[in-house]
Amino acid sequence: MTVDAVARATWIRPHEDVVAAPGQRPAYELRAEFTMVDVPDAATLRVTAHGLVEVFLNGDRVGEDELVPGFTAYRKRLQVFSYDVAGLLRPGVNRVEALLSDGWFRGRHGFERRADGYGDETALLLAIEAGPVRFVTDGAWHSRPSGITRADLMDGQAVDFRLGDVDRPWQPVDIASGGLYDDRDRLVEASAVRVRRIETLAPAGVTQPREGTVVIDAGRNINGWLRIDDLGARDTRLTLTHGEVLDADGLVSTENLRAFVFSTGERLPAGQIDEVISAGVAGDVFEPRHTTHGFRYAQIDGVPSGWDASSVRAIVVHSELRPIGDFACSDTRLDALHELARQSFLGNACEIPTDCPQRERSGFTGDWQVFVDSAALLYDVEAFSTKWLDDLAADQWHDGRVPTVIPNPAGDRPSGIVFEDLSAGSAGWGDAAVLVPWALWRHYGDLEALRRRLPSMWEWVDYASRAAAGSRHPDRAASRPEAAPHEEFLWDSGFHFGEWLEPGVPPRPDPSADHSIVATAFLHRSARLLAASAAVVGDAELEAWAQRIADGARNAWRAEFIVGPGRVSIESQANYARGLAFELFDHDESPLAAARLAGVIADADGHLGTGFLSTGQLLPALADHGRVDTAYATLLSTGVPSWLGMLEHGATTAWEWWDAIADDGSVRGSLNHYSKAAVVSFLYTHVAGIRLDEVPDAASAAYGRVRIAPLPGGGLTWARASVDTPRGVIRSEWRLDEGMFALEAEVPEGTAATIELPDGANDEVGPGIHSFTCPWSE
Questions:
Q1: Which helix (H) or strand (E) holds 397?
Q2: Sheet holding 52-57, edge to edge
Q3: Do the record's keywords include Aminoacyl-tRNA synthetase (predicted)?
């Protein structure tokens, strides 16, 4: 195995006389030499690190991966990367060099940007197998600070090219042992989808708002960095500030990206600042590969007179995911919305599914469970998600709670940070332990993968059900001293984010808030899907246990919150959409609930009123229950809050807040949060009509069975979508012409499809290309 090859290698640390402050630490060079008589046909280099590492063999960079060894639950899972290096070796002396920086291991990370999350040392482990030669990291290596004088994923990177002219002495490395270093069982073969430089963008615009300052517009919000070929004369110092918006003077503003310390309210700088000092050497290129930034605009200060910005390029960096989905229609605004969703995801698909690529860059569980089904229509996210779920299981607390972010620097236990520990186990976030594996089952159908997830899924539902049964909300206890029987399954205690960022509802991260209408719904949903998962793998005992909780939570939700046919006591778009999506209303109540949901939307002048958790559920909840017209009207509404309203304000990625950019130009929050872009799934599943079973068995999963049921509306005259599924391409393409609806559907081998036409006709078809028509009128 790959990890066995590094068994003889020794963990080594760069010698640090003084450890600089977080965000100000240099990258270190480590090097050694070995001799070969002959170069074999096959040679493999294996490497991992505490920190980020780039490896060079005889001056050539090894591989094309960025941010190696990736971000995992380092205490239990550390990836070892392997590379074929036979073409880089030569007879005689061979030189191995490594650049090592803090990365996620020791660098600043998360909303509060705390450092040293996994340790206060960086370290390297490397081995080369080349025929009879076995070369490893050991005490013969040497180290020194590199020309990268500052390297941090959040704060940015600084490079002084003049240091190439300075004789900087090498010192012996320090041998690292004890603690994590001695635990070789945590070394795993790299399973991550590799992070790469995906695209190079010429500036969409260049301005010079003041003397010595140039502002680059990348044309869209991206994750990555700038590359600069022209660094100017020796001693030229360029400072690069990255952000999403410009202020009134045309300068980059990062005010919307500044976080704060929860305990004190202290505002933190936004970071995302790179620096480069020129040595005046032709051919020197600045490309900061030990950091990433979320940005559309980059402000370059210190540019000399006459400096040519044509050398600047924006480099798009993210996990190299395979695109599988395509959508287009007669309304170009929806095409733009589809692209906005795609770019939002790619900007947040850098090694892990992040919430935003600038302010915290954390793997928030709630965000990924909200978006994973949409992502699976756009890209192949099976391996990407599987690796993240391995980290979730590793960092899940012993009582079943799931931390809010995965990987979690505190690991599988409390961190001692009050808010961080308080928020672990929030409904809708911790439910990712169940909802993400279930989404992967639906889209990819890997039975053994689902089976491997069952312990983590069970632990979460067990925790949530015990939390529901174990305590009551004080207000409920005061108004009803004796608990009703259904309260065994009413989850009304503990901290929950709730719907989070509903328009006009100030966020209330407060454990005293009663979010039971949200939490109990999610308890039902996760328990129901755990029961379905147990049924798929043949665990009847677990299925019965989980189904009892699912039924109990549904009854509790209904007893506590339904106040009339299709009516809930706490009326909101989110509560109605969730109730319909999770089947909390009885069959005869659902049309009434959908009608009331339409009424609540009308009360908001046709605008959206959902937050993080239910935005993706809103339109299907309407369309699936007889309110197609309202679904389209909401999809195509403009102004604030709306999806098209973001586009009207120039958005290229989805916003954290619906009103992130106000009419007066003021900005708040991240402009690249994909949760609200989950609407993109509606374009595939309802506009084009490609639908998986909600609860598929082994034969139906992974598009073994599919419905193709387009729902025309919204003034569209045509639409098409395709998804490259594990069984092949499924395509739906329809057109309206002179009172007729015409559909062409492509079904791959191994798939059975039910075709449903707008007039109610349906047909069962197998593989092939099929055409259908029926009368149509608005």
A1: none
A2: 60-61, 52-57, 92-101, 28-36, 142-145, 171-172
A3: no
Distance separating alpha carbons of residues 5 and 190, to the nearest angstrom:
14
Are 468 and 615 found together in one domain? Answer: yes
Q: Tell me how far apart the alpha carbons of residues 615 and 626 are, in angstroms, rounded to a whole number.
A: 19
pLDDT at 310: 87
> What pLDDT does residue 1 have?
54
pLDDT of residue 481: 95
Tell me the C-alpha distance between 197 and 289, whole Å. Answer: 10
For residue 161, is it within any domain? no
Do residues 525 and 412 share a domain?
yes
The DSSP line for 288-344 is -TT--EEEEEEEEESPPTT--GGGEEEEEEEE-PPB-EEEEES-HHHHHHHHHHHHH
Scan for tokens 């169940």, then name that residue.
434
Query: Is residue 157 assigned to a domain?
Result: no
Residue 677 lies in a domain: no
Domain that holds residue 723: 705-775
Residue 641: asked if its preceding bond is cis (omega within 30°), the reply is yes
Q: Examine the domain organization and report whether 716 and 667 are in the same domain.
A: no
**3-state DSSP: the chain helix, strand, coil percent, rounded to 5?**
30, 30, 45
Together in a domain, 186 and 221: no
Q: At what angle do helices 615-623 and 573-581 cross, to 10 degrees?
A: 70
User: What's the confidence (pLDDT) of residue 2?
Assistant: 64
Is 385 among the domain residues?
A: yes
- DSSP annotation of 624 reads T
Q: What pLDDT is attached to residue 663?
A: 85
User: Do 294 and 358 belong together in one domain?
Assistant: no
What's at 93, amino acid-wise? V
Residue 563 neighbours by CB distance under 10 Å: 10
Angle at 193 between CA 188 and CA 194, to 5 degrees: 95
Residues 584 and 728 in one domain: no
Whether 100 contacts 30, CB under 8 Å: yes
- pLDDT value, residue 112: 93
Dihedral angle at the C-alpha atoms of 11, 16, 18, 21, nearest 10 degrees?
-60
Q: Find how far residue 26's CA is from the centre of its chain.
A: 28
The count of domains in the chain is 4
Among 432, 393, 354, CA closest to 111: 354
Give the CATH number of the domain where residue 749 resides: 2.60.420.10
Averaged pLDDT in 10-residue chunks for the chain of 778 residues: 81 96 97 96 97 98 98 98 97 98 97 95 97 95 98 98 92 97 96 96 97 98 98 97 97 96 91 98 97 98 93 97 98 98 98 97 98 98 98 98 97 94 97 98 98 98 98 96 97 96 89 96 98 98 98 98 98 98 98 98 97 98 98 97 97 97 92 97 98 96 98 98 98 97 98 97 98 94
CB under 8 Å to 72, separation ≥6 — which residues? 78, 79, 188, 192, 387, 390, 391, 394, 407
Q: Looking at the structure, do residues 331 and 308 belong to the same domain, yes or no?
A: no
Last residue of a domain, one of 285, 319, 353: 319
CATH number at residue 257: 2.60.120.260
Q: Which residues contact 197 (CB under 8 A, 6 or more apart)?
A: 64, 66, 224, 315, 316, 317
**132 exposed, middle or buried (CB, 10 Å; 0-12, 13-18, 19+)?**
exposed
390 shares a domain with 245: no
Q: How far apart are CA 159 and CA 306, in angstroms?
A: 23
3-state SS class at 173: coil
Residue 56 neighbours by CB under 8 Å, 6+ apart = 62, 96, 97, 98, 99
The last residue of one of the domains, among 286, 319, 352, is: 319
Residues 6+ apart with CB under 8 A from 586: none
